[in-house]
Design goal:
Largest sheet: 2 strands, antiparallel
Number of domains: 1
Strand content: 5-15%
Shape: globular
Strand order of the largest sheet: 1-2
Number of strands: 4
Length: about 210
C-alpha cells in the first residue's frame, strides 16, 4: 500500500506544480483555444493540459518501471499519443492521421505484452480471446482514447469522469489481484487530481487533444 501512496503523491504534486508553467508554454507555442459563438469562454485558453498530466504520470511511472520493466511499452505508447495530441493542439492533425498514429501507439503497448487475452463472463467464467486478443486490445485502446476526447466539452468534465472511472478501475483491479493495473490507475488518478483544480469552472487551462 505504501507504493500506491508514493506513486499517487508523486503524480499529484508534479502535475499540480507544472500546470501553471505549461499554461504559459501553450500561449508561447500557439496551443490555444480561440473563442467563438459556440464556446462559453470569451478569451484565449491554453490547451496543453495533457502535457502537465503526462509529466506527472511519466515521473511516477519511471519509479514503477524500475520495479516492473513491462511498463516501458505503456510509456512509449503514451509518449506517441502525447506528441500527436500536442501537434494537433498547435497546428491541427487530420482524423485519418490521428487514427493511424493512435493505432501504432496501441500496437506498441500490445508488443510489450499488454493485451486482453480473456474476457469475464458472468454466466460461464472467463472467455479466452485467442487470435482476437491483439486486434481487440488495439481497438479497445483506440476507442477509449477517442471516447474521452468526445466528452471533453465542459470545464472539468473529461478529467472528472476519467478520475472517477480510474478510481473504480483501481479498486476492482486491487481486489482482483491485478496489481499492475491498479498501480497505473492510481498514478493516473493522482496526475488528474493534480490538474483538475486548474480545469474546473472557470477553467484556467484545457486538457486539449494532448490530454483527452
Amino acid at each position: 500500500m505504501d507504493l500506491y501512496l508514493i506513486l499517487f503523491t508523486i503524480a499529484f504534486f508534479i502535475t499540480m506544480l507544472v500546470t501553471p508553467f505549461i499554461a504559459r508554454l501553450a500561449f508561447f507555442v500557439g496551443a490555444v483555444d480561440r473563442p467563438n459563438g459556440r464556446k462559453i469562454h470569451d478569451t484565449f485558453m491554453p490547451r496543453l493540459g495533457g502535457l502537465a498530466i503526462f509529466l506527472g504520470f511519466f515521473t511516477a511511472m519511471l519509479v514503477l518501471v524500475t520495479k516492473k520493466p513491462i511498463f516501458t511499452g505503456l510509456l512509449v505508447g503514451g509518449t506517441i499519443v502525447l506528441i500527436l495530441g500536442m501537434i494537433d493542439d498547435i497546428r491541427g492533425v487530420s482524423p485519418r492521421v490521428k487514427l493511424l498514429w493512435q493505432t501504432m501507439a496501441a500496437l506498441v503497448v500490445v508488443y510489450f505484452c499488454f493485451d486482453m487475452d480473456t474476457l469475464s463472463n458472468f454466466l460461464h467464467g472467463l472467455f479466452r480471446l485467442g487470435i482476437l486478443a491483439v486486434p481487440l486490445t488495439v481497438f479497445w485502446i483506440v476507442a477509449v482514447t477517442n471516447a474521452v476526447n468526445l466528452i471533453d466539452g465542459l470545464d472539468g468534465l473529461a478529467s472528472g469522469v476519467s478520475a472517477i472511472a480510474l478510481l473504480t478501475f483501481a479498486f476492482i483491479a486491487y481486489r482482483g489481484g491485478q496489481e499492475s493495473a491498479a498501480l497505473v490507475s492510481v498514478i493516473l488518478v493522482g496526475a488528474i487530481l493534480g490538474f483538475i483544480r486548474y480545469n474546473f469552472f472557470p477553467a484556467k487551462i484545457f486538457l486539449g487533444d494532448s490530454g483527452s
